[in-house]
């Protein structure tokens, strides 16, 4: 079949889409007629020839922008670009790498669309020359159970040391001067480490001055930060990703042909040169079925139908699962029949041999001798 394109609607669908856009412009707070020439700001109704009145994919000509126009840029390596789909005035929902996907050359995990590294957290908090501290620094501070080192209500256990308060290296010879922040310093081996406490909050009766997870702020390690092999922090606990992410819903090797990663909708986001949904080699293609851009599908099939189809690798696995047991059963039956045939053949040959033997005739002389002995 010749390839078709996954965009475009019938007249009825286009009319319904326009009605939906109009209703959204009335009721949606973020719409509020941002394009003044497209709608009446008093009644918040579209003008007669306007298709849309607001939205990232609504042009100044009051028409929906064509497909493949970028409407949301990528923020980092864990976040993906989104495009206008040619039908909706608003950009498609944000797409990003699924939680637990490696980033930063395998040194960190993606979490909620961000590459969660302690280096980035320290730089955002203290400046570009600061980095995440060593494990020794984290253990030293987070075992203290005070406001500069804790896992909320108590000290961090050894295995959770990397998931409590954020500890950074401090490469300067001056003290930190930061509004509403107090700092504690520690010389741990070759590093001068620093941990912060944010003031202006009501103190609790606990030694750490914190009582529940809702009190965490930027001075704590963020959820999703790596804390071990295939492990990341979640609410001050270091946990294995296999218990937190369902890797069976989307598997990069099985479903993405090893040429893409799974996104937050558990669909493949394919590398450049590979076509969604299964990341098969197609020149010029990329991305996912969720990012709004135009991609190739088989003519007569919608993207949803393709997405519900069975991947070729899964088809092969299904065939093997069905055929192998059948082959084993047939082989067992054949072997059993062969054994029975050989057994029946042996019995027939023995019966033939027995019938072919000459009959035993009595020896008259021997009978007479035996009779004579008995008589005496």
From TrEMBL:
Subunit note: Interacts with TEX101.
Gene Ontology CC annotations of this record: membrane
Keyword check for Transcription regulation: no
Domain of life assignment: Eukaryota
Key words, A-Z: Disulfide bond, EGF-like domain, Membrane, Transmembrane, Transmembrane helix
Domain EGF-like: 246-280
Domain Disintegrin: residue ranges: 25-99
Principal location: membrane
InterPro entries documented for this protein: ADAM_Cys-rich (IPR006586), Disintegrin_CS (IPR018358), Disintegrin_dom (IPR001762), Disintegrin_dom_sf (IPR036436), EGF (IPR000742)
Protein name: RCG42974
Residue pairs linked by disulfide bridges in the UniProt entry: 71-91, 270-279
Subcellular location per the Swiss-Prot or TrEMBL entry: Membrane
One Pfam family here: Disintegrin
TM region(s), chain numbering: 318-335
Gene3D superfamilies linked to this entry: Disintegrin domain (4.10.70.10)
Signal sequence bounds: none
């Amino acid at each position: 079949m010749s390839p078709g394109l996954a965009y475009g609607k019938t007249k009825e669908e286009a009319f319904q889409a326009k009605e939906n856009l109009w209703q959204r412009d009335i009721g949606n707070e973020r719409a509020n007629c941002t394009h003044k020439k497209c709608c009446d700001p008093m009644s918040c109704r579209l003008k007669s020839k306007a298709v849309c009145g607001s939205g990232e994919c609504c042009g100044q000509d009051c028409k929906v922008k064509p497909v493949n126009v970028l409407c949301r840029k990528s923020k980092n390596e864990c976040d993906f670009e989104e495009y206008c789909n040619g039908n909706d005035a608003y950009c498609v929902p944000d797409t990003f790498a699924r939680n637990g996907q490696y980033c930063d050359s395998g040194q960190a995990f993606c979490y909620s669309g961000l590459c969660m590294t302690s280096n980035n957290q320290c730089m955002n908090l203290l400046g570009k020359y600061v980095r995440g501290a060593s494990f020794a620094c984290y253990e030293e501070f987070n075992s203290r159970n005070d406001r500069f080192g804790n896992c909320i209500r108590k000290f961090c256990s050894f295995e959770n040391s990397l998931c409590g308060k954020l500890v950074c290296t401090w490469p300067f010879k001056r003290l930190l001067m930061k509004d509403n922040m107090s700092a504690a310093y520690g010389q741990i081996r070759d590093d001068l480490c620093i941990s912060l406490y944010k003031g202006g909050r009501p103190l609790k009766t606990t030694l750490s001055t914190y009582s529940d997870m809702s009190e965490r702020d930027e001075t704590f390690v963020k959820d999703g930060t790596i804390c071990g092999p295939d492990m990341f922090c979640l609410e001050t606990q270091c946990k294995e990703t296999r218990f937190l992410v369902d890797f069976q819903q989307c598997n990069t090797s099985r479903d993405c042909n090893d040429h893409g990663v799974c996104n937050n909708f558990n669909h493949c986001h394919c590398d450049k040169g590979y076509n969604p949904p299964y990341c098969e080699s197609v020149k010029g293609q990329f991305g996912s079925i969720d990012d709004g851009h135009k991609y190739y599908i088989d003519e007569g099939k919608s993207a949803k139908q393709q997405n519900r189809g069975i991947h070729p690798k899964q088809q092969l696995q299904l065939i093997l699962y069905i055929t192998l047991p059948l082959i084993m059963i047939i082989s067992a039956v054949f072997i059993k029949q062969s054994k029975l045939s050989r057994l029946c053949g042996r019995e027939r040959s023995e019966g033939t041999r027995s019938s072919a033997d000459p009959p035993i005739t009595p020896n008259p002389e021997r009978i007479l001798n035996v009779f004579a002995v008995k008589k005496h």
